[in-house]
Amino acid sequence: MQNRRLIAAGVIVAVVVVVALLVHQLQVSQANNSMKTYAGNVDGLMTASYNNGTRLFAELQRGNATNNESALTTAVTNILARARANLSTAEHYSPPSQMASAQRHLIDTLQLRYNGIQQIAAAIPNALTSQSASQGVADIAVGMYDLAASDVVYKSFVATGIATALNGAGITIGGTSGVPINSSQLMGDLSWLDTRAIAARLGAPVPSSQANLPCSGSCGHQLNSVSYGTTLFYTTITNTLPAGTRPTLTLSVTNTGTSVEYDVQCKVWIKGYNDSATSSIASTTPNQSTTCNVTLPRALPAGTSSTLHAEVVPVPGEADKTNNFLAYPVTFK
Q1: In this structure, is residue 215 part of a structural domain?
Q2: What's the pLDDT at 130?
Q3: In this structure, are 96 and 48 located in the same domain?
Q4: 12 vs 115, more confident
Q5: Are 8 and 114 in a shared domain?
Q6: Is 333 helix (H, G, I), strand (E, B) or coil?
Q7: For residue 216, is it within any domain?
Q8: Which of helix, strand or coil describes residue 98?
Q9: Rounded distance, CA 98 to CA 327, Å?
Q10: Are residues 58 and 197 in the same domain?
Q11: For residue 251, which of 267, 275, 262, 271 has the smallest C-alpha distance?
């Protein structure tokens, strides 16, 4: 009888242990599934947020936005609405306890993105108006800093927090079968933090003195050549320009420095006349050549002979200015 009781007790203990193990395994499985589901949701949401940001930068960089301010404003307003929807989605997540901190920082990340885009949307009208362009561009830069900060918060706290929780549970991350963690950076090009870059990409009417600040490295340009139509001018012969019209000349310019330059000014004038003409290049890239077209400020009569002067205007901080200027003998026929 005693033996039977001992056996029965042992069976009960074994059953309890097995049940406890099964319950524990079930709880672990549920917790792991919950973390996987949450991490997958965050990955998808951050992909949507990244795509929304990509649309924002594409709209801002379409060229001279002053020609279509209404379309740009509408596009950015729609992007702002999607940013608010992404934030709302995050606010309704119910994270597992292991990822509660990541959830709080996820909301911070998307709030920064919403705030940044809202700031940018509000500043666009001022940025594209001559009287307020400088302030508008500066306000857009403030919004860009919010977007850059969102990347820091996401990578430092959200992605890292999720990865730490998954690693702690022995859950595979990435690869073909692991849990994905979005690693995209919304602010992939930090030049968007520079008011000069913003002004150039928007086509904002910011004065050139504000567009180009002294560079930190070497900076400057070389004037390579001047041409009229398909005819390249030479400094050693007399070149011909049409009389009675204001011909447009093409200046070839190379950025010889290490800095991107914005609102680069090109200038031409005819010796003996007290006027000149200018045009600008939105931006130039180190070691790359580009052109600008400048129309002479006046028409000259046939038989006029003089000297054509052309210049790529030195930028602030440019040390070597000897290659910014060329002069050509010309006659008008």
Answers
A1: no
A2: 80
A3: yes
A4: 115
A5: yes
A6: coil
A7: no
A8: helix
A9: 72
A10: yes
A11: 267
Q: Is residue 83 part of a domain?
A: yes
- Give the model confidence (pLDDT) of 187-219 as tens digits: 988 889 988 788 878 888 766 555 556 666 788
Name the least confident of 51-60, 155-164, 215-224, 303-312.
215-224
Structural Rg of the chain based on CA atoms:
32
Q: Which strands, in side-by-side order, build the sheet including 305-312?
A: 239-241, 325-332, 305-312, 261-270, 277-284
Tokens standing for residue 287: 């070691």
Given its phi and psi angles, is residue 221 left (phi above 0), alpha (psi -120 to 50 degrees) or beta?
beta
Residue 214 is assigned to a structural domain of this protein:
no
Report how far residue 143's alpha carbon sits from residue 126's, in angstroms, rounded to the nearest whole number. Answer: 14
Same domain, 240 and 315: yes
Give me the CATH number covering residue 306: 2.60.40.10
Pair 331, 241: CB distance under 8 Å: yes
Could you tell me which residues are beta bridge partners of residue 262? Answer: 283
Token duo for residue 180: 């994905």
* Residue appearing with tokens 């002979």: 305
Amino acid at 255: N
Q: Does residue 201 contact residue 189 with C-beta atoms inside 8 Å?
A: no
Residue 283 shares a structural domain with residue 188: no
Hey, is 284 helix, strand or coil? strand
Residue 18, exposed/middle/buried by CB under 10 A (0-12, 13-18, 19+)?
A: exposed
Best CA proximity match to 280, nearest among 291, 262, 269, 266? 266
The whole-model pTM stands at 0.65
- Whether residues 285 and 201 share a domain: the answer is no
| Residues 193, 203: Cα–Cα separation, whole Å | 16
The single-letter DSSP state of residue 276 is -
SS3 221: strand
Give the structural domain span for 32.
Answer: 2-206
Q: Looking at the structure, do residues 70 and 157 belong to the same domain, yes or no?
A: yes
Identify the residue whose tokens are 């850059």. 148
Q: Are residues 8 and 157 in the same domain?
A: yes
Tokens at residue 44, please?
């998808």
